[in-house]
Each structure stands twice: as C-alpha cells, then as structure tokens.
Specification:
By secondary structure, the protein is mainly α. It has a domain of 48 residues. Helix content is 65%, strand content 0%. The protein is built from 4 helices and no strands. Helix 2 crosses helix 3. The longest helix has 22 residues. The protein is globular. It starts with a helix and ends in a 14-residue tail after the last helix.
Amino acid sequence: MLFAINFKLAPDMWFQGLKSFPAVILGGLDSVVGASLAGLIIGVIENLAQGYLGEGSREIAGFVVIIVVLMVRPYGLFGSVDIERV
C-alpha cells in the first residue's frame, strides 16, 4: 500500500498484493519478522525457479512453497501455536 501511495496507482497493482500473500502465510500471520524473512525466502525461490524451470514457473513458485511448508508446519515458519483447551 505504501508503494501505491508513493507512485501512481494503476489497475495492475493487485499483482503486488498477490506476491505478498505467500510471504505472510509462510512467515506466520502473527509474526512481522517472520513475514519479512519469508518475503526474502519467497523472492529467492521465485528467482531460482525462473532460472532453472523457466519463465512461467516464477508466478506459482511461492504458492508451491507455502503448500509444502503448511503441510509440515500449519501455523507458518515463525507463527505461534495456539493451544485451546475446551
């Protein structure tokens, strides 16, 4: 959103939000530091996927990573586990 304030708004700004979604889910919804580190991880993985697998794989690489990580850690890499006793 800060990017949109500093620069002119365009109809294709939704793509920036779509890129940030895997980073927030991967880092954990309650961890700002985790989301920042996950953004770096997603960026590196997207660039590696583009280099090794081709141009079309860059857009889906982040979502493939969050599917794999959420199967192992359902609360993200840095999210906290909420234990609720009933």
